[in-house]
Amino acid sequence: MNENQAFPWDHPRFRSWIGVARACQLMQQAMTRAIADLDIKTPHLDILINLYRFDGISQQELARKLLVGRSNMSMLLPQLEKRGLIERRPDAKDKRILRLSLTKSGRDLTMQAMAIQTGLIERTLSQTPEDRCLQVAEAMEDIIHILQTMEPAEEA
């Protein structure tokens, strides 16, 4: 790079991207600490919240929503099932498909965790006007759409 070229971190888009990545990482760390007393980790929380929202979702649908592979699901789900937080049942029409639901204990724990999560988000963003929060959300949704529609060859 010659001295007339700008460094990547001097570019507004690069700065924005780094800011989002750092904020995400710091929020993940704060969330991990906040839910530690519930004896769950953030990947567990992601699963529990999705099962709360989408009762009866298949393992494959859940993996797709969470952007994780089946191997991750096959590690995390048994942990939650062993604790009595979720249950897996065969689909009524296709026995190869397993449907996931929260148990009563799972629903109770998820409600506690969501209250903790909502409180952390509120404390973190309370100084940011709602319209600015919506602008950030819309920008991130645009990025998600772009990344999801990219050709695999473009990802390299």
TrEMBL record:
Domain of life here?
Bacteria
* Entry keyword set: DNA-binding, Transcription, Transcription regulation
Pfam families reported for this sequence? MarR_2 (PF12802)
Q: Domain HTH marR-type, which positions?
A: 1-152
Gene3D superfamilies associated with the record: Winged helix-like DNA-binding domain superfamily/Winged helix DNA-binding domain
- Output the PANTHER family linked to this UniProt entry: TRANSCRIPTIONAL REGULATOR, MARR, TRANSCRIPTIONAL REPRESSOR OF EMRAB OPERON
- Name the record gives this protein: MarR family transcriptional regulator
Organism of origin is Shinella sedimenti
